[in-house]
Amino acid sequence: MSRPASEQLPRSERKPLYVKVVTQPPLHGCWSVNISETGIGLIATPRRPSEGPHENEPVEMAFSLPDTGAHVRVHGTVRWRHDTAGVGGTVAALGISFGAFDAADGVKLARYLASSHLQVVAAFASDDETRAVRQALDGVATPHFAATAEDVHALLTRGDMAVLLVCGQDESRALALVESLAELRAEVDPTGAGPPSDLASRIVYCAPAAPERLVALFNSGRIYRAPGAWPDPEAMREAVLQAGREHGFRTEQWRMALELERNLMRERALAQTPVVGVGRHGEDLGFRSPPMQRVMEMVRLVAPHRVAVLLQGETGTGKEVLARILHRLSGRGDLPLVVQDCGALTETLLESELFGHVKGAFTGAVSDHPGLFVLANGGTIFLDEIENTTPNLQAKLLRVLETGDIRPVGGTQVRHVDVRVVAASNRDLGEEVRAGRFRADLFYRLNSFTIDIPPLRERPEDIPELARAFVEQFNRTLKRSATGVAPDADEVLHGYGWPGNVRELRNVVERAVLLSRPGEMLTRRLLPPALLNNTLPRADPTGDGSLRARLQQVERDLIREALERHGGVLRRAAVALGMDPVTLGRRARRHGLWKPE
């Protein structure tokens, strides 16, 4: 395997790519919708809801790139999945982030995306029209010529065609093609709410037709542009490029709508189930350590007040869980809680997602979009990974915090919203400000109430309660009957460094519950080998531990403090401890405190 895709390739825009995709775990009827150098969107028709990979699960994929014949194999992770009832059964939509490619397949994909043009079907073109189409689209699109309606359908069902040019001088033939495609689209997606399909190519009509007929076709959405019969090359080029951009935007807009709908469904489901760490009435469960007791005291103190809260902590420490606790205790618990990962979208898409846009604000903005702040009005919005926002977007967030006023992209009307803002960061925002990567004014506005969440390794008293809570949770969701955590497994859980924090503990318990037999306690044998290999004896807090265990615990604490004091730089920590860096690195790895890049 080569390097991870995120290290190997820059982030790029998504492009249409409708080809068959083979996945492992298997997913029936799986086709790609769009692709970039860092991820892919898939549509499938699973035979049963449990089929195929689900959110946060690994997946292997294999597919071919059109025209080149190149095969790509890649390992990835399911970022989100949405299952809904469709024509003939369930339809599943998935967003996959790429992890690592086989051999040089990542380079193949990058070259394909860099060199690929818009794919265009030109129907019924005469010899003169063929030359005109080639001249108009030279360098910006690749035309594919079809002499019959059957040829047009064959090219469109290939999947990667974004625009259909209808040419020729036979008016009845050209109009019959447009109507037949409209009928097929209605059969595939009667509501028009589904993903852009292989029949959803934008139609640029360049054949003869009466003006009133063209107006009717345009108003009904059957054609996208009608530059007229025999248009000049510039008009044809512009119409095709606009149609291609609209097609690509619809794909992205549909993905965003799916993800928003999925988030809202998830919020409704979570409102009906207890969160690990908080009870129905706000009592804290699983937080028995003094550090987390102090955190919960701060949460209970600030929850009833409309003040922005900043949650800081390592990845996996439970920032989103605390945001839900804040929302539940705030008096706004019956109103929406909207979650947005600020690192998941580009600046333009994130601005549109948060503040909305008006019809016509940009190409493809065919209707008003309210934005998440409007959807969260009266409730809470949780902005995760806020350190990934740009200075321009940070300025707009500051305005919302100070005035409650938002203005959609392309709009002139200002709308006032009452939204509680909870932000989260896995970096020290104070350091980000000093480094010039985060606006100081927004930081000081958020910094009015900051809650630092300690990593799991600093609160081992929470491990047993959290593990038991996760066992109960996964017994319900996985239909298992594990009866608790055995002493030998509990010893392993206590001795591990938990670099992935609570999220890693949750995944470990989920795996163990899944592997357990009916009525069995979770024992050491059900834990991952990596966990066992990185486990060290921990000093017994009762004072009955061995001398060796106590010395190892002291050594671990000293190394951890030195690494934290010197920003994780091993060489500086070694100088401070008077040790050789190689020796320190070996001991830090053994304690689970450091991993080489």
TrEMBL record:
InterPro entries named among the record's database cross-references: AAA+_ATPase, AAA_lid_NorR, Homeodomain-like_sf, HTH_Fis, P-loop_NTPase, PilZ_domain, Sigma_54_int, Sigma_54_int_dom_ATP-bd_1
Top-rank lineage group of the source organism: Bacteria
GO molecular function, one term: cyclic-di-GMP binding
Listed Pfam families: AAA_lid_14, HTH_8, PilZ, Sigma54_activat
Residues of the Sigma-54 factor interaction domain: 285-514
GO BP terms, alphabetized: regulation of DNA-templated transcription
Keywords: ATP-binding, DNA-binding, Nucleotide-binding, Transcription, Transcription regulation
Database matches in CDD domains: AAA (cd00009)
Keyword Cell membrane among UniProt keywords: no
Record keyword Cytoplasm present: no
Name this protein carries in UniProt: AAA domain-containing protein
Organism of derivation: Corallococcus exiguus
